Structures are given as structure tokens and as C-alpha cells.
Amino acid sequence: MNLQKKILISFLIMILTPCIIIGILGFIATGIGIHGFRTGNNDTIAIITQPIHALTELTQTEYNELSSSVVRFPDRMDNEKWLSEMNKRLKTKFSYIVVVKDEKEIFVGDMDEYDKVRTAVLTGIASRGAAFDGAVYVNGEQPVLVKHGNVYFSDGSEGYFLIVTEATTLFKRMTRSFATGVIIGAVLVAIMAAALIAWINDSIFKPLEKLRIGTREIGAGNLNYKLSREQNDEIGQLCNDFEEMRRHLKTQIDQREQYEQDVREMISNVSHDLKTPLTAIKGYAEGLLDGVADNKERQDKYLRTIVVKATDMTLLVDELSYYSKLDNNKLPYNFEKVNAVGYFGDCAESYANELEMKDFTVKFISEIDPETVVSIDCEQIRRVMNNLIGNSVKYRNTEVHGKIDIKLTDSGDSVRISVSDNGIGISKEAQPHIFERFYRADKSRTSGRAGTGIGLAIVDKIIKEHKGRVFVKSELGKGTTISFTVKKGAQQTNG
């Protein structure tokens, strides 16, 4: 349920509930309080709006029965047992009977109460004042409603009977009952209001408070404060979006911190890698200036060493510059369709000639259709091959003759190129990280192998731009195979 509906329902409940509960309970309590007061067409509304009329209707059945008995069974008016039974019925309606014979009271249903109102009742009957539907309302400290009927006894005597209804007792009980109903209704309204407040508090204010705390925590730099989604509404969605934002920020900051750490490590590595050739260049240059190289052969040796070291430094700087352009997507790609066997075969041949003097054998193996065409940027893929071959040479096993195999296999809509060597291999712990920028499996830097740790990161970046994937398989002491895929292009046609 969304927040708008919750608020609307809450307001409707708060407005309608008190009216409904107080009204229903008030009428029910009134009905309960009068113990059978409803007779004929009277209901609770009539009791409240026309109380005197309702009082007359209250005992109308008994009055009619008494009036009939006076005519048909006059001896009943002398029968105390029958009168007592009738009086019991009237007692349930807050009334009692008085029978007078020859000016003498022969039956009084409630002597204590009648003593209090006798004078007022007799005066009211005599004056016939305040009559309602044949009944006389006698006002005073204890108001009563009196119904009067003449009696002709079986022995020829005359008299009358009275049905006296205690209005005060009835109305007080009605008032008490109504008040009880109102109190019960008020209590229920309070309970309902408390439940609504708790509902709104749990649905709105508590999540908002958690959101406020979360905002404050993030503002203070605590990105580990988690905000759970507890409900499926607008606030719940807001909390969910907030949590997504927190995770995103934390990931970005973690990545930035890792990047900064990598950069610091890379600067340290590059500083070390530059310091070594610079020291060599400086030493050999000073040797030339100081005349240590006293013959042409030694001078040429010193100069060749200076050139080699300077070339290493140039390659190092170029690799850093290249990766910066690649990482910022400032390097344009020029894709073209070339024959896979022809392109990678030429690469293998050029490496074979170059590495022969370094005691390496380069072998090219193709297991694909000779006419297979791939869509690649030839210059960038050449750099990929240079980095992979360069790593095979750099991390060779000096105890054995170096071997490098370049193999092409079919991978459905792609061609898979694998570069395998018999070098020192890569540990299982390092393999998941070798394509991360600035990562170096050789942390000690005691092997003399210079490098920034971004060669394989460059490979991974270029292959991803070619919509391909890079794989590694290696075992320490046995060698490494790094494979990548490139998409096929349209088949070439002869002729």
C-alpha cells in the first residue's frame, strides 16, 4: 500500500470511527439500560426524542390488561396473588400498581416509593394536569407518570387502580447507560487512535528517522551503515534507493582508494624501474668521461649499454602514456576485416625471427578454416600480441630452451588465439588479478624484470573493445597460456 493511501485511510478512520463507535455504543447501551423499554413502534430514537410518550407506551400492555380485567374479571382486583404477578411484570418496567377501594389502598406494589409521591400523584389525578395519551405526568422531586383506571368491584364497591412509572429512575439509568456507552466509545476511539498513531509511526516516522540517521552517517563518511527495506511503499522504495546509492558510493570510493593505492605502488615500481637504467646510464657515461673505457671496443660496449637502457626507459614511458590514453577512451579504433591465418601467421613469423637470437622457438598452429576472416584493429591487436610475447620472454624459465606456441582455434562466431609458453608460470592466487592495472605477481622486484604491471591490463582493455574475452591457464614451473577471442567477419571469396 502506498503512502498516499495510508494517509487517506488514516484520516477517514480518524474522522468516521468516533462518530460510528460513539453512536452505536450509545444506542446499544441505552437499549440495554432500559431493559425492554422498546414496545410497539418505540425505538431508541423515540426514547430520546419523545421520552414521555415512550413512558406511556412502556406499560400500555399491562394497562390494557388491567382495564379489560376490571370489566370482565372484577374479582381479580381483590386477588392479591394476581395483582402481585402483574406487579412483577411492571417492576421490570420501573413501574408498580396501586389499587384503591372505597378510598382505601388495598394493594400497593412499592409502598416505599409510593409514600414519596402519594400526595403529588393524588393531586395530579385530581387536577388532570399534564396529561399525555391518557396518562398524567406528575412533576416534582421524584417525577412519575401515572395511568388511572376506574374499578367496580364484584361486591359493588367502587375504586380505581394506578400504574405508577418512576421517570427519575428510568431516565437516570438511561443517562448512565448512555454515558457508559460514550465512555466505552471514547476508550475504543482512543485505542483506535493509538493504533493509527503506532501504524503511522512504524510506516512513516521510523523509516524517516532511519533515513535521517543514514544520511548523517554517510555525511560523516561512514559508508558501512546499511539501511534495510522493511516495507513496499514510497518510503520503502526511498530507503531501497538510498541503500543502492550507499553501495554505489562505497564501491566508487573503494575503487578510488584501490586505484590510488595502485597508482602509489605503480609510481614506486616505475621509480625503481627508471632508477636502475638511469644509474647504469650515469655509470657508463661517467666511465666514458673519466676515461675508464680506454679503447674503442670498451667505448662501443658502454655506448651500446647506454642505448639499451635508454630504450628500456622509452618503452616504459610509452607504455604508461599508451595506457593513459586507452583508459580515458582517447585512443581511436580502426576496425578492418583481415584473414586470421594470414595476419597471425605473419605475427608468428616476425616473432620467430626476432626471438631466435634469444634462444626461443616460436611455433604457429592453425586449426581454423584458412579463409576465416576476423574484424580487428590490426595495430591494437599487434600490441596485444607484443605484450603477450613480451611477457613470455620476460618470465622465461632460464634453465630450458624457450618455447612459444601461437594457436588459432574456432569458437563459433569468434576465433580464439592462444599464446602458450614454457616459462615460470603464475600462481593460482595471482591468476584472478593479473589483468588488474598495476598488478604484479612478482611483488619482491628482486628478479630484475622491469615493468609497470599494466601490460595485461592493456590486453584486457583492448580485447573488451573488440567484444572479446581473455582467459588464463597457468601452472608454476610449467608455463602459461593466455587466450583471447575476436569476432569473425564476413568470409572472403576467391576471385
Q: Which spans have pLDDT < 50 for at least 5 consecutive residues? A: 32-47, 444-448
Helix content: 40-55%
What is the N-to-C succession of helices and strands? HHHHHEEHEEEEHHHEHEEHEEHEE
CATH topology of the domain at 333-487: Heat Shock Protein 90
Strand content: 15-25%
The CATH class of the domain at 333-487 turns out to be Alpha Beta
Mean pLDDT value: 80
Radius of gyration: 55 Å
**Helical/strand content category:** alpha+beta
Kindly, what is the distance between the CA atoms of the first and last residues, rounded to a whole number of angstroms?
Answer: 71 Å
Number of separate helices: 12
- How would you describe the shape? rod-shaped
The number of E-state strands comes to: 13
What is the fourth-level CATH superfamily of the domain at 333-487? Histidine kinase-like ATPase, C-terminal domain
Gross CATH architecture of the domain at 333-487: 2-Layer Sandwich
Largest sheet: 6 strands, antiparallel
Strand order of the largest sheet: 2-1-6-5-4-3
